[in-house]
Amino acid sequence: MLPIEQARAIAESLVEQARAAGADTADAIYAASESQSVQVRLGELEHVDRSEGEEVGLRAFIGQRSATVSSSDFSPEALRELVTRVIAMAREAPEDPFAGLAPAELLQRGTPPDVQSEDSQGADPEAMRSRALEAERAALGVPQITNSSGASAGSSASTVALATSTGFSGAYRATGHSVSASVIAGEGATMQRDSAWHGTRHLEDLDPAEQVGWLSGERAVARLNPGKPKPGRYPVLFDPRVAGSLITHFAGAITGGAVARKSSFLQDKLGESIFGAGVTITDDPLRFRGLRSRPFDGEGLPVAQMDLVADGVLRTWTAESASARQLGIQPTGHAVRGTSGAPGAGPTNLFLAPGKRSRDELLTAFPEALLIIELIGQGVNPVTGDYSRGAVGFMVRNGEIAEPVAEITIASNLIDMFATLEPGSDLEFRRGIDSPTILIPEMTVAAA
């Protein structure tokens, strides 16, 4: 992985070469990553993995025609060939009236914000091994845990550099640290498996390995001897482990590409109340040490905290330049991209703001309800919003978590779910997309 200034210099050089070869405009992105992980099982080292990847992508525009070519060969000859190939491809590409770089007047200028995404502590394989062993020991120490699927610890680092012919040049690095454990409770046909994981940008923010391991064991034991509820209509609570998936469906539905293609169940909802009063969904790319924080977007535009939903009202689409032109709006600073294609749009640190009632108060809101801790399958229609997924969880009676349930299906429509959902007050920032416990007052529950 190249030093950050050298990575940026390569991106800038490719843009200059493309312009000299006949491109009207061009941009180039360098992306590199490296990771290490250690996996143990039953106290023994099972697997050590190290991976590295490095690639550069060049996008060239000739009029309204464009092409993108990528390469992992950084020799001068290979990069010259990359430029030649992308120009030739752009000349033969079909015209796209919405293609083009982000407007120059919107590009980020000056020093990019520091989001503290890079940890100065590097990877230490021995320390990772110790963390993995500690997590597994703690998990196996939970009563009724009978076996281990393994525990792991890892670290990663990445570099992104972007340059455009319209005057933007920037780069940033990010690191990551993680620990996880997965164990089995019970014997024979009654066995149940569960896990716990935590990941952070900085090692000092990582949960203790013992805590992660113990949590995985407690989760597995809690799932023993599951039953099935009587089919019918139930209030359903989504645990924070899975509640973020509902926000993920929302994020996909408001991307400019989906709206422009008329393939979103929120197609005509801009400016309307799609959630209840008081509900806010925020995207925060500048959160210090956030798992998806970044100082600029995939087109070189500045980024900022933004309420996508405020007081229940859908305030904006998330759009990169191409879909923004198609929709007749400004790009929103949500461009995401790799090295081999045009940018799309997506969120960064997205979260559903906490509500007024605590998790315990939501659990007691109905005499009988269902608490979901795991979702299975992909039964969501992004065009209609129809929602049907396999699930695992617990019955809740009079506010108390009762017996586990498994092999069930929960179903509704996301438009109805969004309109009636209530967030709890237990929000924690632990993932890229975060949510407190969510209560949906009514869903259809059936045996899977």
TrEMBL record:
SUPFAM superfamilies the record matches: Putative modulator of DNA gyrase, PmbA/TldD (SSF111283)
Metalloprotease TldD/E C-terminal domain residues: 231-446
Positions of the Metalloprotease TldD/E N-terminal domain: 26-90
Top-level division of the source organism's lineage: Bacteria
InterPro entries according to UniProt: Metalloprtase-TldD/E_C (IPR045569), Metalloprtase-TldD/E_cen_dom (IPR045570), Metalloprtase-TldD/E_N (IPR002510), PmbA (IPR047657), TldD/PmbA_N (IPR035068), TldD/PmbA_sf (IPR036059)
Region (Disordered), start-end ranges: 109-129
Limits of the Metalloprotease TldD/E central domain: 122-223
Family: Belongs to the peptidase U62 family.
Name of the protein: Metallopeptidase TldD-related protein
Organism of derivation: Sphingomonas telluris
Lineage: Bacteria, Pseudomonadati, Pseudomonadota, Alphaproteobacteria, Sphingomonadales
